[in-house]
């Protein structure tokens, strides 16, 4: 579920979420991905030491609407006349070069403004089915932005199965993790999934909303998807989604949100990126062009041959990424590896304490008979510290209940899990 969905995804210790409220978030790296060197994705930047963004014009910065606007209107740092700080440094340490810019205007997608009339109705709502507007904003500055390349917005639609590059300065370990490290730009090549993949176990997305969401957002696999990909994390919000065929030279989406495999799960199953093409409701691409952002379309767009070698590697073929709508048995198999309530129930019976589990790093594995299954690592976080005797007894108790191989790592209980064969129909 989107229990942390757009709720301050990417806002770091600034007035956000509600008027005057300070929000502290982790600010390390994208979950997964390659650490980039200076100039690998030269248009990406970090905005006010919080959200990720991209330069898309001489004085134009593209980011997510929820990074700049809430129920009380624009955050103070993004109102006309305000000063804001940006940096395109790959590593945001004490040596990183920053520049201070004056905000001329901040433009937020009209549909967002219509819905976000009060904090309770903003798109960081916890209901995925309410995420039905484009989470896009464009900041126009008085001064020309220096030292950061311009990446035009590619307004040609992106198809399911197409390769894209996910990038951001956000946290590295998990959503909600309290880890402080030097923020740095990371990125990974992945593929766009069909919108129907939002119907995974625990997401809460209703079938009747899939086409509406898909009309506004692109979906990519997160680290908890059966064919794992990079995961968005607080701080990645607003970051550019690049078309991989342009090697990061053009932007096709904006990091916006994610889904999880149930309440409390710390790693995204899917990532959502606001679409920027002209086929979106309200023609987002045309709107951005009218505000002065540089745009192009498909084959007319530039190609950047200087992309990082790590980003030149093609992801796994689309055929290995199952579409939940294509085969009922496959859907059941994927839901089975993401389902963790049976482990949670077993731990509760053994300890009589609250526990939240998640199924992570799932992957598809061939079987000798030509079938395949999914294997994953399950991580469970307990509500309380255990005694030494309890820590010794729980793994044995779980093994007796059919969950062998679990062990404690601090307060986390981790162990392997696997489904039965997916083609057999046993699931």
Description of the molecule:
By secondary structure, this protein is α+β, with helices and mostly antiparallel strands. It is about 15% helix and about 25% strand. It has seven helices and 21 strands. It has helices spanning about 65-70, 110-115, 210-215, 285-290, 330-340, 340-350, 390-400, and strands at about 35, 45, 50-55, 60-65, 70, 75, 85, 100-110, 135-140, 155, 165-170, 185-190, 215-220, 240-245, 250-260, 270-275, 295, 355-365, 370-380, 405-410, 410-420. The chain has a seven-stranded antiparallel beta sheet with strand order 1-12-11-14-15-16-13, with no helix packed on it. A six-stranded antiparallel beta barrel has the order 2-3-4-9-8-7. Strand 20 and strand 21 (about 410-420) form a beta hairpin. Helix 6 packs across helix 7 (about 390-400). The protein starts with about 35 loop residues before the first strand and ends in a 9-residue tail after the last strand.
Rounded to an integer, what's the Rg over CA atoms? 21 Å
The description of the largest β-sheet is: 7 strands, antiparallel
The tally of helices reads 7
Q: Residue share in helices?
A: 10-25%
Order of strands, main sheet, comes to: 1-12-11-14-15-16-13
The helix/strand class is alpha+beta
Secondary-structure element order, N to C:
EEEEHEEEEHEEEEHEEEEHEHHEEHEE
Strand content: 25-35%
Number of E-state strands: 21
Give the averaged pLDDT, no decimals.
79
Tell me, briefly, the overall form.
globular
Low-confidence stretches: 1-29, 317-328
Distance between the ends: 23 Å
């Amino acid at each position: 579920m989107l229990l942390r969905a757009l709720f301050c995804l990417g806002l770091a210790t600034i007035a956000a979420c509600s008027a005057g409220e300070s929000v502290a978030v982790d600010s390390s790296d994208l979950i997964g991905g390659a650490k980039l060197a200076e100039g690998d994705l030269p248009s990406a930047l970090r905005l006010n030491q919080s959200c990720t963004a991209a330069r898309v014009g001489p004085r134009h910065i593209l980011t997510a609407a929820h990074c700049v606007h809430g129920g009380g209107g624009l955050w103070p740092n993004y109102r006309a006349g305000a000063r804001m700080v940006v940096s395109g440094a790959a590593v945001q340490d004490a040596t990183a070069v920053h520049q201070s810019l004056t905000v001329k205007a901040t433009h937020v997608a009209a549909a967002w403004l219509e819905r976000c009339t009060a904090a309770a109705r903003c798109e960081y709502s916890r209901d995925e089915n309410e995420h039905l507007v484009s989470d896009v904003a464009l900041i126009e500055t008085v001064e020309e932005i220096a030292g950061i390349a311009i990446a035009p917005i590619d307004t040609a639609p992106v198809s399911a199965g197409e390769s894209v590059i996910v990038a951001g300065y956000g946290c590295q370990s998990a959503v909600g993790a309290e880890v402080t490290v030097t923020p740095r730009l990371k990125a990974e090549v992945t593929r766009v999934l069909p919108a129907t993949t939002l119907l995974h176990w625990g997401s809460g997305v209703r079938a009747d909303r899939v086409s509406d969401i898909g009309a506004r957002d692109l979906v990519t696999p997160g680290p908890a998807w059966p064919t794992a990909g990079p995961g968005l994390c607080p701080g990645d919000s607003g970051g550019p989604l690049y078309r991989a065929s342009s090697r990061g030279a053009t932007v096709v989406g904006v990091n916006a949100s994610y889904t999880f495999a149930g309440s409390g799960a710390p790693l995204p199953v899917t990532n959502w990126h606001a679409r920027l093409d002209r086929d979106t409701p309200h023609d987002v691409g045309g709107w951005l062009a009218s505000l002065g952002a540089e745009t192009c379309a498909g084959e007319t767009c530039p190609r950047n041959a200087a992309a990082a070698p790590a980003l030149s590697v093609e992801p796994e073929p689309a055929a290995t990424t199952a579409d939940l709508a294509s085969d009922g048995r496959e859907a059941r198999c994927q839901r089975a590896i993401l389902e963790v309530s049976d482990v949670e129930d077993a731990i509760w019976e053994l300890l009589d304490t609250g526990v939240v589990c998640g199924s992570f790093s799932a992957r598809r594995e061939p079987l000798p008979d030509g079938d395949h299954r999914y294997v994953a690592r399950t991580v469970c976080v307990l509500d309380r510290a255990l005694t030494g005797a309890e820590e010794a007894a729980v793994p044995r108790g779980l093994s007796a209940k059919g969950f062998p191989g679990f062990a404690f790592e601090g307060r986390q209980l981790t162990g392997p899990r696997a489904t039965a064969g997916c083609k057999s129909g046993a699931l």
